[in-house]
């Protein structure tokens, strides 16, 4: 009797829910495929538009997440789950999950702050939290940097939005500083003339503001010159390294000594 009842109920449930379950699976598969197509199409639309590069991956992630949530709700409805009760359970679960994932929510809020305030954008070179790199992507929860030696750094948006940073790409022009040393007894006028002439010959150094050249310190083993010049931000390191080499060669030609650290040791002999 019990076996017949069990078989009957099982058959009834299978007949009732099997089509719904199959339909839900099909909707899940087809819906996932459609969502991928929609997100891809949305991405292409963003590429053709004048949307800020920083916003593109963020908006795609938001659209993808929203469509996935809608798909899950649709599938659960097809199975026969009452959405009123489900939403209440989901709300309670969401509260618990939100408390557990407070850091993740903070990162999401940080991503929104970054995209609204725009302290940097994709392609900028920034320094923050001990890292220097080019901003590659700004995602919902994190920002990706690429270093000069091609390392990938992933920074959470929460801490990134609330910490101090240096953006090296904001200004068109930047100042490059050098310290050049000559030995005591060398002619400082010759050194100054060489530095001034090299700055004038370097086409990538801007005429305005004029380069600054001055004796900055009488150090332990050297007389130090400080040289400051303005260049295009993209030329900074090329000019920096090129100037080092030129100064070294010209100082050698003119017989100017470039001192190195040294120590005098005096030995006193005492009779015992």
Task: Describe, in plain words, how this protein is organized in 3D.
The structure is a single chain. This protein has 272 residues and is an alpha+beta fold. The protein folds into three domains: 2-100, Helix Hairpins, CATH 1.10.287; 111-167, SH3 type barrels (Roll), CATH 2.30.30.60; 173-253, Alpha-Beta Plaits (2-Layer Sandwich), CATH 3.30.70. The chain has helices at 2-48, 55-79, 83-100, 102-117, 157-162, 188-201, 236-253, and strands spanning 125-128, 131-138, 142-146, 152-156, 165-167, 173-182, 212-218, 223-232. It has a five-stranded antiparallel sheet. It has a three-stranded antiparallel sheet with strand order 6-8-7, with helices on one face. The chain is elongated.
- The sequence of SSEs as H and E is HHHHEEEEHEEHEEH
The portion of residues assigned to helices is: 40-55%
CATH topology of the largest domain: Helix Hairpins
Strand content is 15-25%
Radius of gyration: 34 Å
Class derived from helix and strand content: alpha+beta
Number of β-strand runs: 8
Task: Give the arrangement of secondary structure elements.
Elements: H1 2-48, H2 55-79, H3 83-100, H4 102-117, E1 125-128, E2 131-138, E3 142-146, E4 152-156, H5 157-162, E5 165-167, E6 173-182, H6 188-201, E7 212-218, E8 223-232, H7 236-253
Antiparallel strand pairs: 1-2, 1-5, 2-3, 3-4, 6-8, 7-8
Helix pairs in contact: 1-2, 3-4, 6-7
């Amino acid at each position: 009797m019990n076996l017949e009842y069990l078989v009957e109920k099982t058959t009834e449930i299978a007949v009732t829910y099997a089509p719904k379950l199959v339909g839900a699976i099909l909707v899940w598969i087809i819906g996932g495929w459609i969502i991928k197509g929609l997100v891809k199409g949305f991405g292409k639309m963003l590429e053709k538009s004048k949307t800020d590069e920083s916003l593109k991956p963020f908006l795609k992630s938001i659209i993808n997440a929203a469509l996935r949530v809608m798909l899950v709700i649709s599938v659960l409805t097809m199975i026969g789950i009452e959405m009123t009760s489900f939403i209440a359970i989901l709300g309670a679960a969401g509260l618990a999950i939100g408390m557990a994932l407070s850091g993740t929510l903070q990162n999401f809020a940080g991503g929104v702050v970054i995209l609204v305030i725009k302290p940097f954008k994709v392609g900028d070179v920034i320094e923050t939290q001990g890292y220097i790199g080019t901003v590659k992507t700004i995602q919902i929860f994190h920002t990706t940097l690429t270093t000069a030696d091609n390392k990938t750094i992933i920074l959470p948006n929460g801490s990134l939005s609330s910490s101090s940073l240096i953006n090296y790409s904001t200004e068109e022009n930047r100042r490059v500083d050098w310290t050049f040393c000559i030995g005591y007894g060398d002619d400082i006028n010759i050194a100054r003339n060489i530095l001034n002439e090299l700055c004038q010959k370097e086409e990538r150094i801007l005429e305005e503001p004029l380069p600054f050249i001055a004796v900055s310190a009488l150090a332990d083993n050297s007389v130090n010159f400080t040289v400051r010049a303005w260049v295009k931000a993209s030329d900074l390191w090329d000019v920096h390294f090129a100037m080092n080499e030129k100064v070294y060669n010209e100082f050698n030609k003119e017989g100017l000594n470039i001192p190195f650290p040294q120590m005098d040791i005096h030995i006193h002999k005492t009779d015992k």
